[in-house]
Hints:
Blueprint: H1 11-18, H2 24-48, H3 53-74, H4 78-88, H5 93-105, E1 111-120, E2 125-133, E3 139-147, E4 156-161, H6 164-173, E5 192-201, E6 206-213, H7 228-243
Amino acid sequence: MAKANPKSLSDEELAKICTSVAGEDALAAAGCLGGALAALLVLAGVLGFGSLVGPALVGLAFTLVTLVLAHQVIRRPRRYREELAYRSGRGPLSQYVAEAEAILRRHGADWVLLFTLSGLPHGGFWWLRLVLKEAPPASARADLRVCPRWQLQSFERIESDVPNDILQDLLLLLKDPDLAALADVPSFVIDGARCHLTVLRREPWLVRSASCNLMDFGGSAGEPAQHTAVFVSSKLTDIIHRLTPQSGS
Length: 249
């Protein structure tokens, strides 16, 4: 299993491989601490025991190599973690934006919306991609990833055509002329409901991103309608809840 191509594995197999083993974090910390102690001891040897520097250095080097090798053995391969992060929506934003731009360039859609919602410090994580075609008949496709808690490796996939009521809401939302001026909204809350939104349009070409924290506004866009990022993020948060089965919302 550990030698398999990450892309050939199921979500469940990847999550199992990537689950941190007991003591991994402690071992990583020990490796960092060992490096600092080694440097201090070598310096002390040079200053006080010049003739013993060679043997001391060999012993310390052996200890450090042992810690590093043990850490590499116990740590799960990075490529599996990167693949799991990508599938769950926690990969690099640039990767999702590049895919969305490719969809638009091959005329696969008129709009693509990318949206993440993080309930911090211990809440859930949601990643949503909406691919929308305006030409009659209008249609939209939703790809949603739901993780009940940020720390968990497992997540739920929800992939479906968007119901007509949500589609009509999206069409109205995308008529907002302020989308071209989308900008970050400063947050004054450490945790809360952090959102990141990227809007992509084919004609005229538009790629615009913004972030905000819905908890700065009581979790809704009722009063701060002048903040486009907050308004759109609130609408997309509502769409997430409408797309998510009641048991997982």
